[in-house]
Amino acid sequence: MVVNKIFVDILVSFVALVFGSFVLCTSGFGIGLAASPFMLLAIDAKTVVVIINTVSLAAFALLILQNRNKINYREMCLPIAAGILGVPVGLVFFGRMNPEILSIFIGTMIVILGFFAKYLNRQIINKNTPLFIVVSFIVGGLLTSTGIGGPLMALVALARGWTKDTIRGSLPLFYLFVEGTAVAGYSLTGRLDRSTLTLTIVGLVPVLIGFFLASAFAKKVPETTYRKLIVVVIITAGLLVIFKEASGLV
Question: How far is it, in rounded angstroms, from Cα 121 to Cα 115?
Fold first, then answer.
């Protein structure tokens, strides 16, 4: 029975992380948004958050390398610092939240941010640095506690007139530092136990597969087509998570 549970966890994680990594590597954000709703159907919320934030570090490093000449290094210094300051807040929230409630919260955010991502390229925000820093702090806490929050950063990046390649490099640079700090926090607080570490190590394979698939096919698929498909799948999966956990609480 235990072996079957481990096999299911690995299988679900594998498929979810291929999809999540593909979304991340085509858009520069969204691995948690895309992968977590599927993983939450089989794995508890806190383990999902730890796995996603840990395995995604490899994809971030590859995206940074791939887009290194397009990154706004100087402009990212303050946002990265603000995001790191948000990590301790996220760790407190993460540690105190009930796993079932956390699942519903994540599912709800997935649906909201899924709709948000659909209209991401149509929104306009003031191009001011203080707003970027505030959003970075909030996203640092959200990423640490829920594994999602990328659309908020992407919205600000688009408002600043960044190109797709700049976003695909600069945002992963932010995530690498912020989520790297979060992973260190998980380790210090005992969240990286043996089973979680096993799923994390296995999860590196689908993350790399998703990266190479995105690199090979992203430019060949019309952006409007894959964006619509991704949003529909994400929102549907988020609704399934909410329904599953809400039913368990009744």
Answer: 12
State pLDDT tens for residues 12-49: 889 999 988 988 887 777 788 888 888 988 888 899 99
By C-alpha distance, which of 179, 189, 185, 178 is closest to 84? 178
47-89 tens-digit pLDDT? 999 999 999 999 999 989 988 898 889 889 999 999 999 999 9
Say how far apart CA 34 and CA 18 lie, in whole Å: 10
Long-range contacts of 241-245 (CB under 8 A, 24+ apart): 241/36, 241/37, 241/40, 241/41, 241/103, 241/104, 241/106, 241/107, 241/110, 242/104, 242/107, 242/108, 242/111, 244/40, 244/41, 244/103, 245/40, 245/100, 245/103, 245/104, 245/107
Question: Tokens for 122?
Answer: 């149509």
3-state secondary structure 137-201: HHHHHHHHHHCCCHHHHHHHHHHCCCCHHHHHHHHHHHHHHHHHHHHHHHHHCCCCCHHHHHHHH
DSSP sequence for 60-77: HHHHHHHTGGG--HHHHH
Tell whether the model's pLDDT for residue 130 goes beyond 60.
yes
| 108, pLDDT greater than 60 | yes
Q: Residue 47 and residue 44: Cα distance in Å, rounded?
A: 6
- Which tokens in the block code for residue 230? 């991704």
What does the pLDDT read at residue 41?
83
Which two three-digit tokens encode residue 214? 């995105």
- C-alpha–C-alpha distance, residues 150 and 152, integer Å: 5
